[in-house]
Fold:
Amino acid sequence: MILHYFQLESKLANECLLSILFSSLYNLVMASLERLLDSQLPFSFVAKKRDWIDASYTERLKHLLQGDLDFQGTNGAYASHNFHAFPAKFPPQLPSLFIKQLTQPGDVVLDPMVGSGTTLVEAVLAKRIGVGCDIDPLALMISKVKTTPLDPMLVGKTGYRISHHAQQLLKGNPHDLWRIKAAWTPKTRDFVDYWFMPQTQLELLALSHVIDRLEDASLHQFFQLIFSSIIITKSGGVSLARDLAHTRPHRAKVIYDASGEVLEGMALVTKNNPRLPHISKTLSSPVKEFDKRLHKALDGVRLLSRLKETQTILARANAQALPLASDSVDLIVTSPPYASNAIDYMRAHKFSLVWFGYPIEALGRVRRKYVGGETTGDIRFESLPDYPSKIVQEVHRLDEKKGRVLHRYYSEMKRVLKEMHRVLKPGKAAIIVVGSSVMRGRDTETGRSLADIGESLGFTLSHIGVRYIDRDKRMMPAGNRIDLSSQIQRRMHREFVVGFLK
Ligand SMILES: C[S@@+](CC[C@H](N)C(=O)[O-])C[C@H]1O[C@@H](n2cnc3c(N)ncnc32)[C@H](O)[C@@H]1O
Structure:
């Protein structure tokens, strides 16, 4: 009996072992086959074999796109995601979902319009290689810092030294600090004088001067980011701007200091002025805000430091001409700007970039290169598939200029999609998250239009997913009106998640 039991046990064990061995062997063979197909075989053979090997990949992609992509009620503030505000960043759960389901550790994940690096952070957390491009210097800095592990003790100590040293400088001769600003272009100085009170300027000059003297490049960038995060906030941080979140800043008319004393706009401070809360701002000390923001970021620094090493590549590059080899990327997850410059990134970003020595004139030149800009003079227009072409014509009939602006947007997105198709490995997916705009009352139907453009370039459309977002939460542009009827819907906004396969 006992013998029989042992025989049975060992038979079961053998079967179990055999099945494990078989499944590992199967996985090994499949993985090697995939690698081989990725790298060496002629395309026609790849396409044929892929149908069989990647049946599950294709189905998985479709399934993900048809699933819940709203991520309502999830926490997006973990790791380094909350180091710096950024308009229209997507929830980390979104790239994470596609990265975990469609790639393996060591695979290359690209965001060609990386913004604040949400895709890259999720890529490195999942041990993938994150590649990001952008033309915006602040976006690249944020993405770099958010994916670079640092020693939390060193960060804490250096932060303390910076704020201590800045306070010492503020007790000294202010002329030493004003001298820094004297070297800036007159336009840059005018910009700073309009948007920042003199005392705020002095504190910011002291902080930026001390940060600039940090020799370690990673620490230097980290503290530049903390510095920037005290200016670029939903409410405009320590500047006089009231509305940086929507990137259409308005200067406050009534200004209070931290003790409640009116510094400017006394005549408007009357009991029966209903507009008072909408035109006032209470200023806080940049050095104090710097300490607060650093303290807040330390949890993220600790979490990131556990990764020890991350593999990311960041390049200042136009997504219409990516500096990447063909067939080199395993997955793309990106969210391009909206049509018609609905979010003017540079309008907000210059509030902190000027303190790092960027002249306002140079920033203006970068602004013209953003996809979806409003100038159309020297733009190369592309031919478009029927559907987007029809929308462009309709908008053009209503307003010639707007029609050209929309044509610019779809032309630029066509070049971006062409580059995405070139760099992606055959059989792999590109996920594009985008919302529609309304131009002269006409919905630009951006999701469907980009799907058609992508297909005309050789992509296979898997599915267009829809996600609903809280406009306030994602810092959406205030002026991007959409005709929505109910109260709740007015605050909600629809985005499309276009999934392609190469
Ligand atoms: C909606 S944001 C991306 C947000 C990002 N998904 C995140 O979570 O932070 C769009 C980005 O596209 C960038 N962009 C605009 N035109 C570009 C171009 N021609 N080449 C590369 N990036 C560009 C902008 O600078 C901005 O950072």
Q: What stands out?
A: The chain has two domains: 53-136+310-501, 152-297.
